[in-house]
Amino acid sequence: MDMRNLLVILIMASLLLTGCGEDRTEKSTYTREVSVGSPAPLFTYPDMDGKPFRLENERGRVVVLFFWRYRCKECREMFPSLKRLETLYEGKPLTIITIDEDTIHSGSIYTITNFFKENGYTFRVLRDDGAYLAGLYKTLWTPTVVVIDRGGTIAFLSAKEKLDFTAPSFRSIIDRLLSDRTPQQKALP
C-alpha cells in the first residue's frame, strides 16, 4: 500500500470516528425513552381507509392507543370492553385508536376488516405492518395500551397485560384525565 492510500484511509477513519463534526448529545425523537410522564412521540400515519391520523391534532383530548395483533387471543378479547369504553364516553374528548401490528402473513387486511365488521367495531385502525409506530413507542409485545393526556404526555402504559377497559381502575384514569381542564401543554418535538 502506498503512502497516498494510507493517508486517505486514515482521513476517512478519523471522519467516521469523529462523526463528521456533528453534535450527537441530543437524542432523536425515535430513540428517546417512552414512559409514563414523558411526552408522547408525535406521528402522522394513514388509517386503513387511507386517511391520515395526526396525533398532534388530538391536543386537548385524551387518547388511547391500543397496539394489538389479530393472532393475539388476549388482544381480540379486549375489544368488547374497548367498545364499551367508547360507548361510556361518547361525546367526551376521548379518542380511541387501534394500531394493528399484523403483517400480511399474520393477519391480512381482509381478515382485520372482516373482524371489525363482524363485531360491529368502528374504531379507527392504523395498520402498522412496517412496525414504524411500534418502534416509535418501543412496543415489543401485544397487547400494549398507551394513554396520552390532554397535554400530550403519556399518563398510562401497559404492556403484555390483558386489560378490561371498563374496570374501575382504568376508568378512574380516564375520568381523572378528562376532568383535568388545564393540562400542561408540553412542547413536543
Structural features, described:
By secondary structure, the protein is α/β, with parallel strands linked by helices. It has a single domain, classed as Glutaredoxin (3-Layer(aba) Sandwich), CATH 3.40.30.10. It is 32% helix and 19% strand. The protein contains five helices and seven strands. The strands form two sheets. The protein has a five-stranded mixed β-sheet with strand order 5-4-3-6-7, with helices on one face. A two-stranded antiparallel ribbon has the order 1-2. A hairpin with a 5-residue loop joins strand 1 and strand 2. The relative contact order is 0.19. The C terminus is likely disordered.
Oligomer: single chain
* Mean pLDDT over the full residue set: 84
Number of separate strands: 7
Structural class: alpha/beta
CATH architectural arrangement: 3-Layer(aba) Sandwich
- CATH superfamily descriptor: Glutaredoxin
